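Subgroup meeting minutes
Present: P.N., E.W., G.H.
Scribe: E.W.

1. P.N. recapped why we're keeping a running log of single-chain structure predictions: easier to compare across weeks, and new members can see raw inputs and outputs side by side.
2. G.H. added today's entry (402 aa).
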Amino acid sequence: MSARLNDVRILMYSHDSFGLGHLRRCRTIAHALVEDYRGLNVLIISGATIAGAFDYRARVDFVKIPSVIKLRNGEYTSLDRHIDLQETLKMRRSIIYHTAESFQPDIFIVDKEPMGLRGEVEETLAYLQQKGTKLVIGLRDVMDAPNLLEAEWKRNDILRKIEHYYDHVWVYGPPDFHDPLLGLDVPSAVREKMDFVGFLQRSKTQSESTSYRAEGDYILVTTGGGGDGSELIDNVINAYKAAPELTQKTLIVLGPYMPGEQRQRFMQNTSGIPHIEIIEFDNRMEDIVAGAKAVVSMGGYNTVCEILSFDKPALIVPRIVPREEQLIRATRASELGLFDMLLPEDAEDPHKMAQALKALLTRAPPSANGKGIELDGLENISKRIAEWLQPQDAVKVIPASG
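Output recorded in log:
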């Protein structure tokens, strides 16, 4: 069953400088909303270079803004080296503002960066606030280590700005998993706006055209976008070389942002290992996770939601610099008995990594710990939106096929 909301417009912003996390989260929410409500349209503003490589459902579209990339030292640069960074940021600000002005959304949902990249959405927030648009900031379950987040947010006066602009602060995780603002001096007015909606459940794409069709049982090794995942892939390959008794098929998905020379190196490095298969990228990762026997990953938000949604035994080797987000999430999940965790320094030891991979084959799925992690984020978001946009009696339920 699907309900009708008449001509509702939702604008989403995903700054994605180097990775797929923000765009994939926005797309998941957008697809769930158009499935639940006919008459609802979603437009996603994205800085992801490969925003166009994904499929979008009817009534979901995207506007691509010029891409910038984040360097390892935390600084940004234009993806197109011929254009000055300041010029790129100016273009992005202008496109975001004019998109909001033309689209006239009922709701504006910003992903993770409250004021956008280098403050680029603040002008748009001020404009939409005057227009009466409902303004929402969506935060991951874990943002970063409190001292790092606090320094970054104090410098840009973020908490005061959240209090000033936003109507709601959604946390994409359950309240008993982790508080993303733990350790910060959060004004009570911001705390009152916080709503822990829950993890965002994933489902198979129901697509006939998944480009990869796996044969038999496989361990999936995924590093998300792949821009910073080469160490984990090296660790898995070295473990297979050090332990010939490891014969479980492993599928490594490199990710679209992995540099070409690293791709080549991995292909050459695994040519003598019959149990390892490598593919570059698949835009339907949900289906590949769903088909896996177990998953090895760095513990980014989307992959963790997929692991929990499809109830897969998992080994997490978190990235620990420049952000501690993955380390905090993996530590908490392993405390709850959801996954196994191996620190990067241990994963570098081929024998320790081989032991962890063997243990993974007999590990119980996350559901076996009996803690019952809720995966109801999409359902809760859908309810909030119906409550805001129309009184309950005005939301008519009609057959989705009608």
